Known about the structure:
In chain A, 29% of the residues lie in helices and 32% in strands. Chain A has a 9-stranded mixed sheet with strand order 3-10-11-21-16-15-14-12-13. Chain A is an alpha+beta fold. Among the domains of chain A are: 353-421, no CATH class; 468-553, 3-Layer(aba) Sandwich (Rossmann fold), CATH 3.40.50.800. Chain A starts with 5 loop residues before the first helix and ends in a 6-residue tail after the last strand. Chain A has 17 helices and 28 strands. At the A-B interface, strand 2, helix 2, strand 4, helix 3 and strand 8 of A face strand 2, helix 2, strand 4, helix 3 and strand 8 of B.
Amino acid sequence: MEEFNTERLGRLTGMLKRRGVILPAFEIHGGAAGLYDFGPVGGRLRNRVNQTWIDHWQSLGNIVEISCPTITPYSVLEASGHVGEFSDYLTECSECGEASRADHLVEDIHPNADTLSKDELSKLIEEHNPQCPACGASDWGEIEAQNLMFNTKIGAGLSGRQGFLRPETAQGMFTSFTSIYRHFRERLPFGAIQTGKGYRNEISPRQGMIRLREFNMAELEYFIDPEIAPIHDFSLWKNPVTLIADDGGEVVMTLEKAVDNGVIRHPTVGYFMGWTMDFLLSVGINPSFLRFRQHESTEMAHYAQDCWDAEILGSYGWIECVGIAHRGCYDLTAHEEATGQRLRAWRTFDEPKVVEIDGWTTDGAKAGPAFRSLAGKVNQFVEGLPSDSSFPLSQNIEGTDLQILPEHVKRVQRTENVNGEWFVPHVVEPAFGIDRIIWHLLDHSYTETEKSGEDYAYLSLPEVIAPVDVTVLPLFEKDGMDLLAQKIHRDLCSRKNIFSVYDASGSIGKRYARADEIGVPWCITVDHESLSDNTVTLRNRDSGEQTRVSIDDLPF
Amino acid sequence: MEEFNTERLGRLTGMLKRRGVILPAFEIHGGAAGLYDFGPVGGRLRNRVNQTWIDHWQSLGNIVEISCPTITPYSVLEASGHVGEFSDYLTECSECGEASRADHLVEDIHPNADTLSKDELSKLIEEHNPQCPACGASDWGEIEAQNLMFNTKIGAGLSGRQGFLRPETAQGMFTSFTSIYRHFRERLPFGAIQTGKGYRNEISPRQGMIRLREFNMAELEYFIDPEIAPIHDFSLWKNPVTLIADDGGEVVMTLEKAVDNGVIRHPTVGYFMGWTMDFLLSVGINPSFLRFRQHESTEMAHYAQDCWDAEILGSYGWIECVGIAHRGCYDLTAHEEATGQRLRAWRTFDEPKVVEIDGWTTDGAKAGPAFRSLAGKVNQFVEGLPSDSSFPLSQNIEGTDLQILPEHVKRVQRTENVNGEWFVPHVVEPAFGIDRIIWHLLDHSYTETEKSGEDYAYLSLPEVIAPVDVTVLPLFEKDGMDLLAQKIHRDLCSRKNIFSVYDASGSIGKRYARADEIGVPWCITVDHESLSDNTVTLRNRDSGEQTRVSIDDLPF
């Protein structure tokens, strides 16, 4: 592993583009900032990393995959807080009209510019008068909060309604809570995962794959009963981990110790940090370039109880690639309040509790005819009133203004045995940026060396995510070597989870190099001998070792 | 297989919702027409059908997966023709303002209302004055073409630009052509596939999963040299297939014969019809309910040379689920013309051709200093001029207006050996609607029967796409049976491509029924005996057969 630097970054980016791994989207049409393609090599890489992530969490045994639309009605994202809160501060250059993020303009002046308030940003820009990155002028308009969601309209004409492209997949898990709860036979804890596109209309996208306008997300929402102490097996992670706690100090300790010490404030957060680490290492992240950083209280959403980022070091410095947050009951409560639907789980008491009821109920004989289809709702409302309520009482129920008269109600005093109660589950959420992880595993796998005095670069990708499993090379395209090689190639492609590339042009050395460059773990060479004895040369990418094996014994 | 009818459709839809297979999205927020969730059971079903499709095409050996953004700049979809052509005729009710598709209003009056022109629709609506489906009035506004793409704005402020959500994944394959061509070492034929979301802002979505605003697509763009006759092995499909040719007649014959007879007009179209059929049957489509229908010339895009739909019969009648079109050179040419970039392949002649060149070239000594960095482009332009051109000549090259004077050019006459030529490949495109296919495989798998005198329904899903592979059931949750069952369950979940569900409540019979209802192929029951001899009961969904096997010999 060499040091990260700008020249190496340029060579890596060039290779990824040339070989069809990752490349700017719509480039023949002039491109579009913040949008990338996974090309003919990268497409399968993306798919495999994504599927490895799904398999990883499903192996826990109480996690299911769901898939929700990306187009989301206004009301859903209003309830979640995104309509009000999901924004950056923007200012426009009075000279050229180009929009810039206010914090980007002063990031050389302030170490944490993205945490500053609107007033603080205004003051700094006024004092330092930074140049416009587009035209060089220094004349800025008012700073305004710009919502970062992509807008669209669902439907046409007068019946059309406002919607957004989802900024995260998480809301789908919250709005589907009832269905997931039913699937798990109403037993906590359980989780739901979703992978797919998320969208963020960045004001000025930068840093290649790090800050995209459309990105591949993967999120788990794990629902727990806050009154039951979780039991997790931390013996899986014996090696100490680098942790930057919110007091700023870097400590190296096991996850178990960090949970016991209270550095990590909830055991399930710590447990998922371990599972996150396992996933990242399995897809090729170098453990020396991984750390966990705790959010400071000012940085964390107001409802979050603890939050840790998995940060990965690469060509762009330390970058947040995963966030693992304890979100309390915030999300389900927000959707409950917005919709009036119950998003709760039932907790059975160890022993039934005796509850004194002193209050009101409806008199069915009078209330039934008076309120008809709403009588049930009125009864629910009246039974929830305190004992000192007085009647008549006006109330809007389901959009209808009702008068509840003394004759409709009765006073009740009684005791009841209560077996349990409804409560809002808490949520622990590991949220992954798949593109950032793919970028970093490429960055960590990319190795520059020399071979026979020439520059030589390869990707040391783990087999589980290598976009091409094997390359099949006929020594020459004649005498039947090409036909045999093609037969082997097609046979390999038809096997489950195996993808082969047939490469016939150039010297064998050049073709090995081409395979190494995109991280193909194995090469198979078909030569004259193959035609007579049914054997081929099998070459390993990492060791360079070549062995002669029968075609029937290929290890795929 | 029973007959499709409305009552059965209601029971199936209810089961799919109750069990978390497919359900209306955002329902707690009042829902949104044309948007569906794949729930805790359906999520993995969607994933498996999608991945089976990818594996199916990759097994051909010359097909790669790519992944492009869904947000697409205006210029790309202007070039493809979608900005101009992708629309439905809409009219608004003058009473309530609700928008309706004009062809939907007259579909009871005309058998092919969706093929009618604007004038024809206007005339029919004026004559028959249909009622508004929303308010019942009969007073319609002007008919207007409504573009069906979802609009959005990429970026903020003055630097923002118009974009759309992609109506299909295909354009990504065309704009990436150069990268795919390079990947295949510049050798045709080859293909690129993409799966992911497509969007269509339907005016009035109907028919559940059939007409969605956001859907799962899967498309292959296969690039061929039109001058090379393709060779395909049709012996794979010995059984005759139901074909409705564009002369209206239904014929039953093998694909090979249909290609030989010219009923199917291009061999590659016929070959992909076979591959399409294989895929559909592998995921559970009933072959008796599958047919291929050829587009009539009026129905087909003007550039298409032949187009066949795979239609599947289910609760909504015969529905188009796959389109297999020969698109000629239309798409690549359209992007070439819009961008000025070359999207071509090189064809080497069998023997070099001698070509007479009579025309112009630049005089480097004069043109070099005059045009500097543009001199190369000017030379290219001048060499492309016909021999009867005259100078001076004005030309805009790369945005600069240039005067090409007589002194800048020289007359040339010479012969040259030409080894080959650039040409625009033709494209054959199989395009799949994954949601429609999932709907139909559920519809075909859903079987209603009786068991012990009670209604009993199950899904006879193929194992390869069953969303749950196995259910593990402790006979009772005590004496360690629950712990052993959980251990088996977690162990199965950690195996690649295996997903298990743990179900502990209710009688064993009820739990078998619950597993059958969502098509789980296998159930494992842990009982008292299991604790002593390490065996379990393995039950097969379709045969109902129960066998006693050792835990170490489970067939997963």
